Fold these 3 entries.
Entry 1:
Amino acid sequence: MEFFIALCLGITLSAACGFRVFVPPLAMSLAAKYGHFPLSSGFEWLGTTEAVIALAIATSLEIGSYYIPFVDNLLDLVKIPLAAGIGTVITAATLGHTDPVLQWTLAAIAGGGAAGILGTLASLARLTSTGVTGGLGNFIIATIEAIGSISLSLLGITFPLWTAGILVILVAFVVTKILVNPPAWLKQSS
């Protein structure tokens, strides 16, 4: 059961990376610093004051940058692969007491996959907003993503099983809606 909870925690925090890359590592770092989150072997550095400061600065810069029209679209080019990478590392950090092959395989598939899927969906929403509003409505998407990342991170650390379940249902719903009734711009490109 402990393994399943750790996996749910990793997936939830990785999914939050799909919205904002540095918010979940900051949440992990703060939780570890104050003794609410056990870090796996090799990831103890995440619970240091230096890590908290560095991640807080990176988080502030990232959140602020997404409020600049068209810069946000450029950041999405970097965000998706970076989110998948950090999502993989975060999930591996939660699965520390397992066989390394299983740890990193699950981390890459579940953690990297969750971050990549949510990052792609968020980027598609921003791209649609840019096309419809000329980038002027992107601050709404940026705000929703920031709130989503913070909420997923906090809920994931406190209620990993519930949050992972809600996340799976939400992603399945969105993907099904897109496949059943694709947006007009997506229909035109095929």
Entry 2:
Amino acid sequence: MIRSIAEPSSRIRAMAHDDLSMVSDIERRSYEFPWSHGVFRDCLLAGYHCVVLERDGRIAGYGILSVAAGEAHILNLCVDPNYRSLGYGERLLDAILLQARSAKVREIFLEVRPSNVTALALYRKKGFHKVARRPAYYQATEGREDAAVLAKKLISYDR
């Protein structure tokens, strides 16, 4: 007899104010120089597209997107260290890309540490390419680290 193991239920939904403590906790466990609780609160208050991936009632990841003037910027995309390598980062990124397309965004941008090879691989898989480098963008244990600026075209109006 073959038994299948059911995938735990998960869903992507809008981030709520009540999620901020758990989101901030994931951020602190994921990064040496994390965003503060206040930054996440401000993103919600500013009306940015903020989503969480919930697995069996617990937040397993989140993403934040700002949209303006036909462009979008992924400000943060993170999966709880306990839930990595399960495809949740890709699901969150797909949800963010769908939201950007719905907003008729022409191009989407993000910054990523060149040392974050896992994130770079995901973004390349989804069609992002490097367009620039921001020197000394990220705080690091010894000084600063550059950021790779990645972009992806979503909608072309030149038909």
Entry 3:
Amino acid sequence: MIGIDVGGANLKVVDDDGVHIHYCPLWEGAPLAELLHAHKKQGQDRAAVVMSGELADCFSSRKEGIAFIVTTIKTVFPDAWFYGMDGRFHREPVPELAAANWLASADFLRARYPASVLLDVGSTTADIIPLADFNSLTGLTDLKRLQKGYLRYTGMLRTPVATLISSVSLDGIGTPVSTEYFASTADVHLVLNHLRPEDYVCDTADKKEKTRAASLRRLARVVCADLEEIGEQGAVQIAQQCWDRQRALICDQVRQVARGSGATDVIVAGIGAPLFARECGGRDLTQELGPAADALPAYAVREVARGSGIT
């Protein structure tokens, strides 16, 4: 059995050969079936699946998105089981399948870390999940999670800078930012050495290079400038202030959820695990799970399926 997590932007697969992460923007018609076929071995028809890609705006509704993902996966893995928001596995495209990937992670980790808050910082979002009371988590839609503070829609790569800051200080001068999509958090974290160029696994705002120099240029655009106008120092100031805001947004919410749930510690997964484990005072799950921590829902749903007797 393999574990599959179909997001709107990324496809994550965990199998006996390891962890595989593909940039797979569903809204651009990415070849989901073709990517899945690359991980299918002879006689292997069974998969455990979670999803969040049903919300991609190429679908008119979540129902349509769920149906597309289920149908596509079953063409490759006919014996696929889909984990739902009710904490159960399903064979058909039912509404409970919408955005259940985070719950599979909680299901897998709750016995190991019952007094923890799980922070999973991916390319697009930050899931903040108290693990003490699993039953209270079942049935929570993303809307409800946003309202409860269990979901922050900001991540390491794909968040537009202008959604985090409305102005910056450039050499002490307050400067409003443009709301055009000129730069993303991938540029911020690359410039601040939080990520390597090879970690920049999404499209850039300008469809150009994924280098520090190109990221500095994109960040200068945020204040309607060329890099020559504000210099590298100015672009770094933009990056630092954007990071300061993102760090506060996520870490403050983690602390609030921990207080509300009585959690005594924080565990951190996702591409942002090393960075946010340090900033939020948590434990980096990469040390326990290795690369699987960056594909936690795919790994988790496979383990939960095995534990439930689906093998």
